[in-house]
Amino acid sequence: MTKSSPLFFRAAILFAAAFIATYALIFFDARLLNGVSVWEKPSKFFFSLGLHMATLAWGISLLPEPMQHAKSITRATSAFMAAAVFEMAYMLVQSARGETSHFNTSDTFHAIMYAVMGIGSLTLVGVTAYLGWRIRKSATSLTQFAAGWSFITAAVTTTIVAGYMSSGTGHWVGGDMSDATGLPFFHWSTTGGDFRVPHFAALHIMQAVPLITWFWPHKRLTQVALAGSVLVVAALFTQSIMGIPIFRV
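Predicted structure:
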């Protein structure tokens, strides 16, 4: 991965370090936002994006070597990085100010920034889908088949869930409009629906399906895993719309 996509590989390491540094601020800054530390959201986004980039770097390593450094792949990687850096920079600024970044349309500036964040998110999933298409197109092995289709499936399902979620005013559906009563670490609602649950399931299809394929290398099982992952996301999405929590505590 270091040779096939050095930018993603190094950025993944930097984002992992940023996750540790940002999460540590939780123990030094007592300010709360939505019932939890102001640093909860950016720290977890650092972790999620770092894992995302590491997964994409692995995916690029599956491409034929000449294709790994093609201009189209390099441009896609650069676009992803630009979007990721922008998203995290804005989230950090908002957290430092004690203000929300997502669903914040309190004035013209914040409304514009939230819209730009949406464009950034579309860039992230768009690049993921594009890389998945390139991997699938050149697939000669089951691993490439699994990686290509899982990237595409994750991008499509994430876009659908995130698009619906962002059209509202928050990720909660009924229950407490606070993360304080949510599950440990994830803070998913335990009193109502929460669109972050299907969003999480959709995004991590790109890791889950290749892992299943690695443990049980059968094409039919990989196809079942892909179809099953879509059904799981659909079920969790429906559950969230109905205002039903993933777990009641």
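Summary: The mean pLDDT is 95.
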